[in-house]
DNA sequence: GCTTGAGCTGGAGTGCACTCCAACACCTAT
DNA sequence: ATAGGTGTTGGAGTGCACTCCAGCTCAAGC
């Protein structure tokens, strides 16, 4: 696979893939005779995993650190586990925040609905 | 209340409060004889609400738009409700993403734990 | 009456995470 | 053999959301 196909399959741009390589998120792939990047299939799974971390708010610097540990092999297993445990706690905190705000949205939406029903009755109190 | 106390009570910096006023998130408060901002208590609730939207990923531009609608009064009720409904859907999508990734973290953490148990047995497969 | 502390303005600077570009090289199909 | 598509590099630029700063005014306490 060359960079365009990886881009197409992952939804990232070729620029982003090169950028990820530059900062160490993705290991430098092999090159063909013309100097173009040639990726192997497993990188797709890795990129998907990185996207999961990204989508759930892990910072770039931490993803870079995790990627570096991974490249260093099995000896870093405990360190990586700790990073994932930390991220797990971060995810749970977000779940709580989101659940709370979801309930708030429901209350406010219901408020707006009744306000629209009885237009001008209660007035438009707050927020 | 002047700006320092609002900062203390909300956790935002005075700079951020002035910035929020500049972009229209917070209505310009009254001023005392010395030209200093004097806030009334209800602004605290509004700021807390803004922080909820912020913490759950509503973009600044959208918060500004919501704030603008709110200042325009009851006539904009329907538009605001629609914004909250949209944000509600956004929150639910995030909940799904987080729940999925939480499960993934659990699987990977368990993997790492068994790898640490049987060091060198299975090898350190992926991600 | 002077220091201390809080606040004021306008504008520059920061950190993050990309995103775009110019100028060039190479492969494939017509 | 030439046009079009895909790739290369290094470096500059973007958008978001603040954050910091210089140089100033003001008010209150000792």
List the uncertain runs of chain A.
Answer: none
Regarding quaternary structure, what we see is homodimer
Number of strands of chain A: 2
What would you report as the Rg of chain A, rounded to the nearest angstrom? 22 Å
Largest interface: A-B, 44 and 44 residues
Structural class of chain A: mainly alpha
Mean pLDDT of chain A: 92
Largest sheet of chain A: 2 strands, antiparallel
Summarize, please.
The structure is a homodimer of 127-residue chains. Chain A has 127 residues and is mainly α. Chain A has helices at residues 3-10, 14-23, 42-55, 60-71, 77-117; strands at 30-31, 37-38.
Model description:
The structure is a homodimer of 127-residue chains. The first copy, chain A, has 5 helices and 2 strands. The first copy, chain A, is mostly helical. A two-stranded antiparallel sheet of chain A has the order 1-2. In chain A, helix 4 (60-71) runs antiparallel to helix 5 (77-117). The structure holds a DNA duplex (30 and 30 nucleotides).
Strand and helix map with partners:
The structure is a homodimer of 127-residue chains.
Chain A: H1 3-10, H2 14-23, E1 30-31, E2 37-38, H3 42-55, H4 60-71, H5 77-117
Antiparallel strand pairs in A: 1-2
The structure holds a DNA duplex (30 and 30 nucleotides).
């Amino acid at each position: 696979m060359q960079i365009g196909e990886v881009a197409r399959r992952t939804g990232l741009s070729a620029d982003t893939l090169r950028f990820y390589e530059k900062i160490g998120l993705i290991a430098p792939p092999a090159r063909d005779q013309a100097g173009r990047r040639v990726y192997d299939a497993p990188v797709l799974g890795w990129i998907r995993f990185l996207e999961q971390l990204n989508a759930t708010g892990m910072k770039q610097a931490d993803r870079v650190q995790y990627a570096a540990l991974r490249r260093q092999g099995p000896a870093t297993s405990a360190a990586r586990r700790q990073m994932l445990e930390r991220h797990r706690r971060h995810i749970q905190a977000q779940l709580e925040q989101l659940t709370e705000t979801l309930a708030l949205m429901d209350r406010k939406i219901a408020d707006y609905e009744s306000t629209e029903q009885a237009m001008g009755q209660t007035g438009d109190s707050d927020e």
